[in-house]
Amino acid sequence: MGRFPRRRRLAGWLPAAMLLALSGCASYAPEPLGNGHGTVNLNQLVVPASSMPVRDLAAHRFDPADGLDVTETAMLAVVNNPQLKVMRDQLGVARAQAFAAGLLPDPQLAWSRDLPSSGQSGLTSAYSLGLSYDIGNLLTRSARVKAADKSREQVHLDLLWAEWQTVAQARLLFDQVTSSRAQEAVLTREVAALKPLDRQVRVALASGNLSYDGAAVGLNAMADAQRRLAETTRQRQQAESDLRSLLGLSSRAPLDLVGAPYGREPDAAQLQQALQSLPARRPDLLALRAGYAAQEQRLREAVIAQFPAINIGINRARDTSDVTTNGFSIGITLPLFNRNRGNIAIEKATRQQLHDDYDARLLTTRNDMHQLQQGLTSLQAQTAMQEAHARRLDAARAAARQAWQANLMDWPTYLSIRGNALTADLDLLALRQQRATQAIALETLLGGDWTAQAMSATSPSSNRHK
């Protein structure tokens, strides 16, 4: 009779231990999918300046009530861009992985019970109770935790770099939309200016006072202007659609852009100064360094894991003859064939790949920056010449219009002068857009905050997303 209380205590202790272990478990709750409609009302969005990755944006107030300037457009892109939201979710995954890497493995509890067959007297039920733990996991924990922390830092820096690139893309699309709208306005005015002459040409052609050969110049002038207008309208619509997608806006959301496009350009001295501190500032380069540091820890973990894995445990058992024993167990993996050599070779090769990837990225960046700087210098001179050329042709167009209206100039000559002036105006707008594109691309390669004041401030690896 003395055995039964022990059985009852054992039977009661195991469920209690299971309930205690399960009490800390997470619960499940479903998460429905969204509708993917995008934002319609900008006034409903909250765009905190403190969340901005660039100093210029952090010092700006977001107020869409009076339209979006280029800085507010970039701020909205940082907060509401769908791809950045996905990357922030990936940062959450990296945080969870870093948390998981630091958790200790749970011990293993094993319990079994054997009952004698009926009719066998003098025997009692047998049981075995054991508790074991994997010691090998503790040996690699330090390297595993450091690798996970560096991987989380890499994801954080990749997110920051993606935000900087999104800012640049928002500035580019802002410039494309405003430039397309400006070209569209120029061409609309040109079509309106050509309508009286086009009407005269068609009337003269219909009345037989003008042959098709003689009317070709006039007809082609209007057709060319209308073709350019239609093409520019399509480009403007595409740029507006791309900008709405970047900003996470619905196709029904208004796109009221105000102010001048982004136009800051570094000079040669600023470029040289920024190049010196580039590896310590640009998030993608810092992310590569963090990834390399994480890989160093993975290699260290693989080297440690080549040593025998050890599993220790304690056990208590009773056989059917009521003999109780206490003991311990040790399990060791014999490193005869594998010795983790394959994983060590993989981690070494991966480390070399990351090493070369960093060098290649840095070299390409420096060369691209010099090429963009040279291109900007050429575009500056070309833009200045084109501005002077466009002013001269604008004056010639105004004089030709007066002469044509006074019947002092034939209309083919007048159309030729108008066509040349129109081409010069459109070329100037295209050059300005190309120059802005080059300047924004160069600033992005410089690493966002490249001015002397910004470079002396906090490094980009701040705790903003941590």
Record the SSE blueprint:
Blueprint (H helix, E strand, L loop, with lengths): L2 H20 L32 H4 L11 H11 L1 H20 L6 E7 L11 E9 L1 H71 L5 H36 L20 H9 L6 H22 L5 E9 L5 E9 L8 H65 L5 H36 L5 H4 L11
Antiparallel strand pairs: 1-2, 2-3, 3-4
Helix pairs in contact: 3-5, 4-5, 5-6, 5-8, 5-10, 8-9, 9-10
Mean pLDDT metric: 85
**Category from helices, strands and their pairing:** alpha+beta
| CA gyration radius, whole angstroms | 37 Å
Largest sheet: 4 strands, antiparallel
Cα(first) to Cα(last) distance is 62 Å
Please give the count of helices. Answer: 11
Order of helices and strands: HHHHEEHHHHEEHHH
* Number of DSSP E strands: 4
| Outline type | elongated
Uncertain stretches of 5 or more adjacent residues: 452-459
Which percent bin holds the helix content?
Answer: 55-70%
Instruction: Report strand order across the widest sheet.
Output: 1-2-3-4
Q: Beta-strand level of the residues, as a percent range?
A: 5-15%
